[in-house]
Design goal:
single chain, 95 residues, mainly alpha, 5 helices
Amino acid sequence: MSETKAAQELKPVVSPAFSASSVRSLFAGNDIVVVLLIFAAFASLASPIFLTEGNLKNILNQASVLGILACAQFLVVLIGGFDLSVAAIMWPCPL
């Protein structure tokens, strides 16, 4: 009888996969992610073209130049250098 009582005490309590507290803890401190998700949901409901493959490729294509320049500037700042040429190199990029 003591074995069954001990076995009952050791049963793990399984919580539901998506409880309100787990969702709150996931987004706690990530306000910008919540705002971005809300914006994406609103834009996808407002325009049927927003979440298409062509539009997402276009957005990534336009952001790639800025992303590459940001990574290069990060490396310059990381090694302690000070480089102001990023703005001079970036202005002809939209051409």
